Amino acid sequence: MTILVTGGAGYVGAHAVLALLDAGEQVVVLDDLSTGSRAAVPDGVPLVVGDVGDAALVSRTIADHRVDEIMHFAARIVVPESVADPLGYYEANTMKTRALLAASVAAGVRRLVFSSTAAVYGEPAGSTLTEDAPLVPINPYGRSKLMSEWMIADAARAHALGYVVLRYFNVAGADPKGRAGQSTPNATHLVKVACQAALGARPEVAIYGDDNPTRDGTCLRDYIQVSDLAEAHLSALRHLREGGDGAVFNCGYGRGASVHEVIEAVKRVSGVDFPVRRAERRAGDPASLVADTTRIRRVLGWSPRFADLHTIVAQALAWERSVSPDADGRTYARARIAASVN
Ligand code: UDP
């Protein structure tokens, strides 16, 4: 039995591959390397370079590797990009998930774990979000993922496919053993961006909006460490193998950090007081997204190992340094500065 990991050369997918290998599972990766990298796929793991929307390729991969379980990570994930290119997002996230589902159902795949997002909740009114909160996404990214959730649930019901949908809050950090991290070129995510600023790879960090109805005016997010998230995927698979029902789980820690707090944490851990400037709010950004994590803890028995912002930041910084050509980051800064400033 092999697990097909789509997007396994990307950030979360690569950490899931490591967690699966650590658990003794057999894995094949399908990735088009649009944002992922070949180097993120460990030696010995077969990598099929191609498109998850290519039904013939998916069918062949399932048959060749005797796949009967899938973790589907491959997606586009940048909110403002989805606002600028909605049709591209519906194609990448919704249509290609449909193609993957069709191929999976035709091949008799038994279990699917799907990467979804807290963006399906939109602009929530309450403080923390249970999985039963209203689903009113406010950007094409969230809508593209919510449509996929619905498709998966419908297909699962009709075709005896076991499924778990995991709604990620904000993923950050790196493998504690240093084997993987956030390598996406031109990444826009806050922890990564702030770490790059600390290492001199960016001149500054822009804070997108400080007039939100939050404790310091900047957006609150529930930052979950990437290996803890990878572990949630294994727990989801075990749940399905034990006959668990199709289900949706929030993946977060149940507490929010503001943009200011993240920046302060990066400054403290790095010891670098990089410049920060105020900027306009970003399109499609909700003020607060914090998970209620009762269900995942209760049903999957999942519990986090790295639920401390400073630990997450220290891992992210260590990873960022390790991909830097020299120890203090200066060469790195010169090489990357033009490419990575938004
Ligand atoms: N953010 C910011 N500056 C940056 C990147 C992000 O102020 O350079 C803010 C962003 O507006 C949001 C939060 O940080 O409120 C988290 O954004 P990120 O892109 O990391 O994840 P998202 O919540 O959009 O998935």
Question: Any overview of this molecule?
Answer:
The protein has 342 residues and is α/β, with parallel strands linked by helices. It folds into two domains: 199 residues, Rossmann fold (3-Layer(aba) Sandwich); 106 residues, Alpha-Beta Complex (UDP-galactose 4-epimerase, domain 1). The chain contains eleven helices and 14 strands. Strands 3-2-1-4-5-6-11 form a seven-stranded parallel beta sheet, with helices on both faces. It has a three-stranded mixed beta sheet with strand order 12-9-14. A two-stranded parallel sheet has the order 7-10. Strand 5, helix 5 and strand 6 form a beta-alpha-beta unit. The radius of gyration is 19 Å and the shape is globular. The chain starts with a strand and ends with a helix. The site of uridine-5'-diphosphate has 15 residues, from helix 6 and strand 8.
Topology of this protein?
Layout lengths: L1 E5 L4 H12 L4 E5 L15 E3 L5 H10 L2 E6 L6 H6 L1 H22 L3 E7 L22 H20 L2 E7 L1 E3 L17 H9 L6 E4 L11 E2 L1 E3 H16 L5 E5 L5 E2 H12 L5 E4 L8 E2 L4 H6 L9 H14 L7 H11 L2
Parallel strand pairs: 1-2, 1-4, 2-3, 4-5, 5-6, 6-11, 7-10, 8-13, 9-14
Antiparallel strand pairs: 9-12
Helix pairs in contact: 1-7, 2-4, 4-5, 6-8, 6-10, 8-10
Bound molecules: uridine-5'-diphosphate.
